[in-house]
Amino acid sequence: FLSKSWGSITAAPFLSISSGRFHFEVEVCKAEGVVAVGFEANGFRTTHPDLGHQPRGPVLDAIGNSMFSWAIMSKSGQSHHCTRSDYFGMTGWLQVGTVLGVAVDLEQGCMLATACPTSISSVSDWHTVFKTGLSPSSEIGSALFPVISGVLGAEVKYNFGNDPASRPMLHSPPSDDYKPISAALFLNGGQAAASADSGGLQMLHSLNISSEKLLQSLNEVLQSHGALDDESFNDDQIYKERLNEVLDMKVCLTRKQEDVVMLLADGGSAEQLQVCGDAPPRDFLARLLIGQECSYTWRQVLSGLFKYRTFTVIPLGCAPCQIALVWGAVLDSEEAIKTVSLGDDRVLEVSELLPNLQIKQSGLHFLKFEHAVLGLLLASNLFLKAQSAAAVPPTSAPQPCDPACLPAESGHAPQGCLKAVPGVTSVDLRSCEFSSERVAQLHNSVVAGCYAGFILSFNGLIVEHKEDLPFHKCVKRDGKEEVLSRLDKMDWDFVMARAAVYLWRTLDLSPDAISTIPSSRRKLDSSTVGFYIGGLATVVSLTSLSLRMGNMGVEGSRYVAECLPSLSSLSILDLGSNCLEGCGCTTIATALLPLTGLCDLLLDQNNMGSDGAAAISMILPSLSMLRKLHIQSNNIKAAGGTSIALALPFLTNLTELEISCNALLDEGGLALAAVLTSLSALHTLVLVGNRFGAEVVAELKEQTLHVGKCKIENVNIDSSRVLNLF
Length: 726
Hints:
The chain has 18 helices and 29 strands.
């Protein structure tokens, strides 16, 4: 402690104690200045000189100078707590080689001390320093931590008893039930560690926010630049922008790491640190420190002491993830904090923001409030998640979302899943002036809250859970039926999230189901299919999906192929009339392999040709549960028809085959006739418009006589080989 002002070293959050009896030791290495040793509670305020974080307002860095700490002073030999000092009969212990022993009994709330030179094998004559008061409480915080304060050149080293073999403790404990304080070492999630330093590193690694993970973001920027054309760097403006991108990322990562370590040292929980760890590095580029805006410190925010306030200031210049921690303290105050101030000109009642967050109505739609609004959403999701976890018995296994537990449009917390707690359940971002980057983050938070069952309404949208209603009847905005053509990507992601929570089983996005208004029957064309189809992958409960008449084309087939493997429960898939062509059908065919429970596959009117038919035939053996196969009007030639015919014997459950209006010719017809007897369950076969000759028609009819209830419908004789289309 070389400074002329007090400095403190705390073991928070690694050595957190809330009950039991513990002891540790401090050895004097340089007997200069003044040293204070003792314990602090969560509310103790300290600086972080290595990081340059200096909170605004009075700094109580000497332990014992506040109601949140208790100390033994070296100079006077007195106990010191808040403004009170008492002599307890132990002076002159600040001598080189002297070892001070400190013990605490959290059951009785007392603190003991003893001291002797290292040359003496002492039986440890313990003195009572504080008789009562050292117990966690709502006034001081939920836990105590060992702290050493010093000034003017004092040097000491501590021993927490974590290495008894090489560094045995000098003093015997006051009694056998006192343990070395290293026994309380923890990683916020209950995992033990060998030392406080390694504990912090292990926590950062476990939360995926270690230095290696942070540097990965920088490497990604460098790799993206390395993949660019060398000549593109010849433009001075582009070169400067890319150079600034690298420099900005370096600054962002440095600040992010500093802030995470600071929160770790100030007692942040794993969940709170994860909020900051998940934040994009750019959020830390132009952030202010909390002491520059507010009169409190992170230690006070994280201690739970906010619940004794009625008013607090919400910072605007900190990173959104850090503002989320302040909002979290507000939400955790059990509604004690009723008023918040955002900047100099916006004072709001908390009830104006919860549970319905109306950005425009609350006057928070201006750019300067975007960090605070995002922070509130992040905090709400974290808070409601914690409350939801607390409401579930710890021994019960996780259960899927039950629609009965989720309200349709009440805007209240789900009954049976969450108790009535404050949190955001409705968000309206319309008319906000936020940056596109921040809007995207808000959107992600809304969707995350929606999947968790917390966000029930977004931008006026309400999604009902009624299986018997078409799509346009299930989705309403501001109380009126909404149509697909007016839904943007954020709206659609919200709808899909609600569908996932409600466990929708049927989804029909064909034009007739989308809207009853002809002008609003927007098709899922190649320009819109990307975000519409992309959201479907999350509705894993779907058993029936219709994208008929979407006109999505080959480009849309890629999006469909990406989402299909996630929909393993599908039994009905209708992709008819989508102009998929051979390439699109080939793309989709591979994605159908995991759907082994598929019963109805409708691929008609896609102009797949023989190439597409061949691709479909390759995956048919894996779809043994298939009952209905529609591939009519696809310009399938004889070779494609033969490929399909060779795969049909694997479909022993097939009851209906619609392959009309192609051009199978006699070759394809004979291939079909050869396998009909293996389709014992077949009862409907539609072959019209395939340019069969009379002999082939006769053969087909002959073979159907040997197939149960099978009946050939509309088989035409076309000896002139002119295509008949009905």
